[in-house]
Amino acid sequence: MSDGPSRRAPLEGVTVVSLEQAISAPLATRHLADLGARVIKVERPDGGDSTRHYDTAVNGEFSAHFVWLNHGKESAALNLRDPDDLTILIGLIGRADVLISNLAPGALERLGLGIDDLAAAHERLIVVDVSGYGKGGPLDDKRAYDLLVQSEGGACSITGEAGAPAKAGIPIADVGTAMYVYSTVLAALYDRERTGRGAVIEIAMLDVVAEYMGFALNQVIHTGTEPTPVGMGSPMIAPYGAYPTADGQTAVLGTTSDSEWRRLTTMIDRPDLAADERYSRNSLRVERRAEVDAVVGHWCAAHTLAQILAAADANGIGNARYNTVDDLVKHPQLAARDRWREVGTPTGDVPALRPPAVARSWPIRSGSVPGLGEHTDAIRAELSSAATQSEISGS
Amino acid sequence: MSDGPSRRAPLEGVTVVSLEQAISAPLATRHLADLGARVIKVERPDGGDSTRHYDTAVNGEFSAHFVWLNHGKESAALNLRDPDDLTILIGLIGRADVLISNLAPGALERLGLGIDDLAAAHERLIVVDVSGYGKGGPLDDKRAYDLLVQSEGGACSITGEAGAPAKAGIPIADVGTAMYVYSTVLAALYDRERTGRGAVIEIAMLDVVAEYMGFALNQVIHTGTEPTPVGMGSPMIAPYGAYPTADGQTAVLGTTSDSEWRRLTTMIDRPDLAADERYSRNSLRVERRAEVDAVVGHWCAAHTLAQILAAADANGIGNARYNTVDDLVKHPQLAARDRWREVGTPTGDVPALRPPAVARSWPIRSGSVPGLGEHTDAIRAELSSAATQSEISGS
């Protein structure tokens, strides 16, 4: 049986040192910590990770971003221009399984920590270097914030409305990059178990956005037609979108097949449309999107949200609420499934979601949000003790 | 050295059977195939994966989505209501390392393949069951298309403009779920190397969106203030957005710190603003977003895009182009870094991006897009041969 309690979390015994800031590396290492890895977050002593100071939403001390991304980690405040602190970092790397950096391009090299040298010195080390645009092109050294890479990667051109572009509210360039850091580290750990060797991994945010744009890239490459953003809709499917209801709410309805469309015509009391050739296939409905939306919208405007969702469920039509963030906080599906836990901060426990994907048998770690440099002294002492041990044993 | 050529891809020897459709499971298994896994995509004989038929953009045969998500896989067309075909599937599972399903809720159970029974029968098997909303709440059986889960998860409420909500053009609920399937399978493979045991993994799309909403959840939980979507901007940072240029283009500019703002005031010839207390901190600029955007917009309207980007680079200000999908197809940073490759289809080779994250030493597989059921006969023969071998050896 695989679903009994495991003796340990899958990444117990794995140590990750992360020179990290903002979102991409921190989300990746938070997930590594969720699975039991020890994560040492190296921060500048003068302020640390800039997301600590985006706001003071959480207990007047931490930002909303920082609490989201950093529970379960240790914070080592090191001034890497100070030779003593750099020695501490080098000592940490020598004892680590994984080194991650999303510092500015070239920052590791300027510290004398080029990824090739690190790999040469530590055969089992897994090194991950995150950049905005990678190396070898005209944009190598360009600043790469989430908005900038979403925009450079074409993602904003398919979001919002025609003439009123938008970025995805979820910072998809950042979180997508985090997911590739996280997954590729896991692949490298697996590979290391089988080969005994570490890995050098370079990840560029632009490549991540480009991967997620694959459907749109193929459309343009093969048809020459740019997708037009349609707000809550999809340029490739109709009807699929948001409709005002009789009680001043918004219903979200979607069909992804012709049979679902025929069921929808029953639901909205327009069985005549099911037989109408002009709407029989998705591609035809996309061409007549305005007409189709008007028919669906007309029916929704005469029914309450509760009526619409119940009818859609009964007829097998995709439907959802148009939720605010507060609705998500209070979402009954998250509450019923016990998705919330508490994590610690220096000023008290705060709610946090459980990680979205773990095996049943894996224990989940719920560690605390570290104050800046909270673990620096302990880490210095640990390295000093290790050095002494090493001298005593003569190794 | 870790960066010499590896003897093999990290997932060589790993077999994945996937009962998959649409985006979430297919993107996950495509990435597993990128790393060398053998992926057997099980499809219905009557049409297969519905994304095959979204359009005929690629050579009149395949859809843009399908080519994006399915190269490097084998297709087995099996009618799982036919006992003989179900026996084939059971034989495949018995020889597999990983079984993934994103069929409708309850579909596996109805086939007699409940995940607990599978785990009990195959101690080393990693089983992943993807659903929209998980089990145990009011939404268990609800249809879950990307738009629906984005909306239910509050993501649309922070995208677009106030009063004109939008979904992210990138299907973030689907691709985010894919990334958790992919990463959790890798974690389970690593865990299996150390424990000898497989894993049972359940992933809900709503939990994925909720994870990515972490910053917004914390803001609402701790301050009670809903974020307002601001198009190309960010509700938490200013200035950060898109500005029309003198030559009819759009410049995207972003600042993420007060020092970057002060550099921006130099760039736009408004050094007076650097000394103005009313704009000195990000939180103050967010309150005066309209004023700040007007000042930046005024300067951008008097300069060409090329002038603006050059000035921003020279002054250390985050900047980007507002690119279309076609711009991304032709992006010089992708071309210069050799990010494109060719993959096969039954009607000829087509361009595809290399995977965004691999170690330098790993070979990348570039397999073909399978026709529906292209590998069914070979897989039947392989299982039949294995059964014969098993009889001969008496095991």
Automatic annotation (TrEMBL), chains A, B:
<dbReference type="InterPro" id="IPR003673">
    <property type="entry name" value="CoA-Trfase_fam_III"/>
</dbReference>
<protein>
    <submittedName>
        <fullName>CoA transferase</fullName>
    </submittedName>
</protein>
<dbReference type="GO" id="GO:0016740">
    <property type="term" value="F:transferase activity"/>
</dbReference>
<dbReference type="InterPro" id="IPR044855">
    <property type="entry name" value="CoA-Trfase_III_dom3_sf"/>
</dbReference>
<dbReference type="InterPro" id="IPR050483">
    <property type="entry name" value="CoA-transferase_III_domain"/>
</dbReference>
<keyword id="KW-0808">Transferase</keyword>
<dbReference type="InterPro" id="IPR023606">
    <property type="entry name" value="CoA-Trfase_III_dom_1_sf"/>
</dbReference>
<dbReference type="Pfam" id="PF02515">
    <property type="entry name" value="CoA_transf_3"/>
</dbReference>
